[in-house]
Design brief:
mainly alpha; three-stranded antiparallel sheet; globular; binds 1-deoxymannojirimycin; membrane
Length: 626
């Protein structure tokens, strides 16, 4: 090394300085080594991570739901157990995983990939969420559906007779709506004989049930002025700050379901705001020792209680078991897992509890979590619980294995214990009271033709045809009960009766949809023209017996020569009966079943996979259908 002489510095002086510097540098490097050594001896490697790992790897994700999930992760073992339940159920969580993993199509490999359990799944979820943070779900939805919701031509049939029939149904809807608007605007239902409104006590202080229930029907029928009136009312007059006693079930299926569908079909943010506001008000109903909600809730105070008529303060299977579809969507839209947690808790309890002969009784204590009495029915009190099992599976794009297993096990028990053949060869679903059969079938139970039908294809391969046959037989039996082209509230198969009401008190028809609902599904599944013929018979009978000067009314006795009206146009007539008829006379691409499931009030909800996945589909603009 050559040291050049610096001006003013002697050679010996320079040598001295250099050796001082050398010693100083040596000392410094020793100090640095010591410090690093000390770092490695710290009790955990947190500090090292802080120094060496990148920010994105170490920082928690800041999207709302992810933080919520992380908060849960930090809680105690009990909560961990709870979350594990949610994840291992594969339902909602695996649906999210599937969609967030953005696989272009559903393959077996993809499904296998998603079978992650416990914390791993949650971790995947949070990491994936961070990547999707920037693009909004609403935007994705436009691209998600496999087909346009309203079809290529709004489901218009090229068959003139079918088109004519559909136009007739649309005219009925307009007639029902116009009269509601003229005489009962803002009330819950129309009283078509006295030409006034009805409020009732099912919805607490909520009003406008017929409006909220009609939004999607008006929209899919292309009654756009009417839809706009309905939308404006919801925006300006639907007051959610009510204080009355509401049925959790009814508010959920009609209001939450109606607003969700309206949002998904139209993209109007206002519907989303309203439904999330309403959803929050329902949560206190779940504050029970088991998390099984009580039937009645005060939407203002949040206090809840059981129906006075329900034995020993019990909750009703068809009520607490008919929240799943809507609540999962509330979680999706709010990015808050709480709604999904609430319904998964119900699911878990029902899955675990011992069931007599594999059957689900209709009454359960929200305090002890035990069955209160052994009455089993596919009709009233039980019905839509079974419906929501198979529909949860379908809505999860067939990933919710727990729902699937529960549904097929329940169906097996139903077949073994309740399904009967009458002397005249009619298949029916009897009711079960602690082991004794009551050979009666309610009108409500007639939805099961459609339910068994839509579940047929996912049953065990050797059972598929059998399920489709069973669905067709039940639908046939329900059609048989429509002896006067409309049917009674309940019909019997004993004492010589073959699908007829034997008691005067069972002879009424209140514009219910269930039989027509099964016609619609069976039409979609088989394209057997008899279902359209049966639907048309019902249209003619509705026109003949139920149409009055100012709307449609239920009737007191379907067998009576002289018709007696009950003076009530139920909101489900607009939401369900007329919608199912309209779909029956439309092409299958109007609300295709590949993309939509209908809640129990006939409000269409999109499959979750399609809702979130933005790599498949059509790239639609769902907000410009008209
Ligand atoms: C509707 O509100 C729903 O279909 C519910 O599941 C049962 N009853 C009525 C119609 O009959």
């Amino acid at each position: 090394m050559v040291f050049r002489k610096l001006p003013g510095v002697s050679a010996s002086g320079m040598g001295l300085r250099l050796s001082q510097k050398f010693v100083f540098l040596l000392f410094l490097s020793g100090l640095v080594t010591l410090c690093f050594g000390a770092l490695f001896f710290l009790p955990d490697s947190v500090r090292l991570k802080r120094i060496f790992l990148s920010k994105t790897e170490s920082q928690p994700v800041t999207v709302g739901s992810d933080n919520d999930l992380r908060d849960h992760l930090k809680k105690g073992a009990k909560d961990m157990e709870h979350l594990r339940g949610i994840t291992s159920a594969k339902g909602e969580t695996s649906t999210k995983l599937k969609s967030l993993s953005r696989k272009p199509s559903i393959t077996n490999e993809a499904k296998a990939d998603e079978k992650v359990v416990g914390g791993e799944a949650l971790e995947d979820l949070t990491m994936s969420r961070s990547k999707t943070e920037s693009s909004s779900k609403d935007e994705k939805f436009k691209k998600c559906l496999l087909k346009p919701p309203l079809g290529i031509e709004h489901g218009k049939s090229s068959h003139p007779q079918t088109l004519h029939r559909r136009d007739k149904v649309k005219e009925m809807m307009k007639f029902a709506w116009d009269n509601y608007k003229s005489f009962a605007w803002g009330k819950n239902e129309l009283r078509p004989l006295t030409k006034n409104g009805h409020i009732g006590n099912m919805f607490g202080g909520l009003r406008g049930a017929s409006i909220v229930d009609s939004l999607d029907t008006l929209y899919i029928m292309g009654l756009i002025d009417e839809y706009n009136d309905a939308k404006e009312w919801v925006e300006t007059s639907l007051d959610l700050n009510s204080n009355g006693e509401a049925s959790l079930f009814e508010v959920n299926i009609r209001y939450v379901g109606g607003l969700l569908s309206a949002y998904y079909l139209t993209g109007e943010e206002m519907f989303k705001r309203k439904v999330l506001e309403l959803g929050e008000k329902l949560l206190p109903a779940f504050n029970t020792p088991t998390g099984i909600p009580r039937g009645v809730i005060n939407l203002g105070s949040g206090t809840s209680w059981s129906w006075g008529w329900a034995s020993a303060g019990s909750s009703i299977l068809a009520e607490f078991g008919t929240l799943h579809l809507e609540f999962v969507h509330l979680s999706e839209l709010s990015n808050n897992p709480i709604y999904t947690e609430k319904v998964m808790n119900i699911r878990r309890l029902l899955n675990k509890i011992e069931k007599p002969h594999g059957l689900y009784p209709n009454f359960l204590s929200p305090v002890s979590g035990n069955w209160v009495q052994h009455h089993v029915s596919i009709g009233g009190l039980g019905d839509s619980f079974y419906e929501y099992l198979i529909k949860s599976y379908l809505m999860s794009d067939k990933t919710d294995e727990e729902a699937k297993n529960m549904y097929y096990s329940a169906l097996e028990a139903i077949e073994a214990n309740l399904v009967q053949k009458s002397p005249g060869g009619l298949t029916y679903m009897a009711e079960w009271r602690g082991g004794i059969l009551d050979h009666k079938m309610g009108h409500l139970a007639c939805f099961s033709g459609g339910m068994v039908g839509i579940g047929a294809d996912d049953g065990a391969p050797e059972k598929r045809q059998h399920f489709l046959d069973l669905a067709a037989e039940i639908t046939h039996t329900c059609h048989e009960s429509y002896t006067t082209k409309l049917g009674p509230e309940a019909f019997r198969f004993d004492g010589g009766a073959e699908a007829t009401a034997t008691r005067l008190s069972d002879r009424y028809y209140i514009l219910r949809p269930e039989v027509i609902e099964s016609y619609m599904y069976m039409w979609r599944l088989t394209h057997d023209p008899k279902y359209r013929e049966w639907g048309w018979e019902a249209v003619e009978a509705l026109e003949q017996h139920c149409r009055v000067e100012a709307g449609f009314s239920g009737i007191r006795d379907v067998y009576a020569q002289t018709v007696s009206h009950d003076n009530m146009q139920q909101s489900f007539f607009l939401s369900e009966t007329l919608k199912y008829l309209y779909l029956l006379f439309s092409d299958d691409d109007l609300l295709p079943l590949e993309d939509w499931v209908f809640n129990t009030e006939a409000h269409p909800l999109p499959l979750l996979f399609h809702w979130l996945n933005d790599t498949v589909g059509y790239g639609l603009k769902p907000y410009n259908y008209y």
